[in-house]
Amino acid sequence: MSEAILEAKGLAKLFHKGGQEIPVLRAVDMTIARGEDISIVGQSGSGKSTLLQLLGALDKPTEGELWLADQAGRMQNVFGLAPQKIDQIRNRRVGFIFQFHHLLPDHDALNNVCMPLSIAGVSPAEAHTRGRSLLEKVGLGHRIHHKPGELSGGEQQRVAIARALIHQPDLILADEPTGNLDPQTASSILGLLLELRTEVTGALVMVTHDHNLARTCSRRLQLVNGVLESWA
Ligand SMILES: Nc1ncnc2c1ncn2[C@@H]1O[C@H](COP(=O)(O)OP(=O)(O)O)[C@@H](O)[C@H]1O
Ligand SMILES: [Mg+2]
């Protein structure tokens, strides 16, 4: 048996809007093992982004539990931890990549990538060394002093990937990471994600509505009526 990193048990999410209840997730069960790459497809509005937010502890479920392996491999109940601990998990152990990169426009690629380390109190010299090496890994060693506006869409997304990986997270959560890119750039970004997943991190969960991209992942799931099913 491979080592589980994350386990979702009966996750449900209900939103309240204008006096109405909107059930989005009903009972999501999922075990993610180290080294896995998983894609999740589903129609627009099916709850894919909502699910990723729960898996990354950015939001709390209405019901259900999330268990994450600690550094020693013991499973801990994430939402039972102190808020400060949950913040730490979110910041250090999970790397988020979104469709729109959310890079800081006034900072160059290197500063964008190093930002999470600076926030965590790592010295500027060490942060820069690690940031530079990661930018080289994503093929941007020659662009480290370019600001986001001076980079192409694919290059911007590479910077965002480097930033998400800077803490060597156990889990990369990518929400439509290629949705904004042309097909060729999209497939090179996906290739990069899969390559880096094996090199520097634990597991990758990618949400996409592109079935061809989804097929590139070794485990394929779909979200239908608030429940995860295997697909393809
Ligand atoms: N904060 C919120 N308040 C109310 N409804 C929400 C909220 N966030 C998402 N929803 C609703 O939940 C459903 C799922 O949204 P989402 O997870 O973004 O779907 P997907 O990413 O699959 O397109 C949608 O119907 C959306 O309108
Ligand atoms: Mg979405």
Element layout with pairings:
Layout: E1 4-17, E2 20-33, E3 37-41, H1 48-55, E4 63-69, E5 75-77, H2 83-92, E6 94-97, H3 109-119, H4 124-137, H5 153-165, E7 171-175, H6 183-200, E8 203-207, H7 211-215, E9 219-224, E10 227-230
Parallel strand pairs: 3-8, 3-9, 6-7, 7-8
Antiparallel strand pairs: 1-2, 1-4, 4-5, 9-10
The protein binds adenosine-5'-diphosphate (ADP) and magnesium ion.
Describe the model.
Strand 4 (about 65-70) and strand 5 (about 75) form a beta hairpin. This protein folds into two domains: about 1-95 and about 170-230, 3-Layer(aba) Sandwich (Rossmann fold); about 105-170, no CATH class. The protein is α/β, with parallel strands linked by helices and about 230 residues long. It is built from seven helices and ten strands. The longest helix has 18 residues, at about 185-200. Adenosine-5'-diphosphate binds near residues 17, 22, 24 and 45.
CATH class of the largest domain: Alpha Beta
Total of domains: 2
Mean pLDDT: 92
CATH homologous superfamily placement of the largest domain: P-loop containing nucleotide triphosphate hydrolases
Query: Tally of extended strands?
Result: 10
- Assembly level: single chain
Bound compounds, each kind once, are:
adenosine-5'-diphosphate, magnesium ion
Bin the helical content: 25-40%
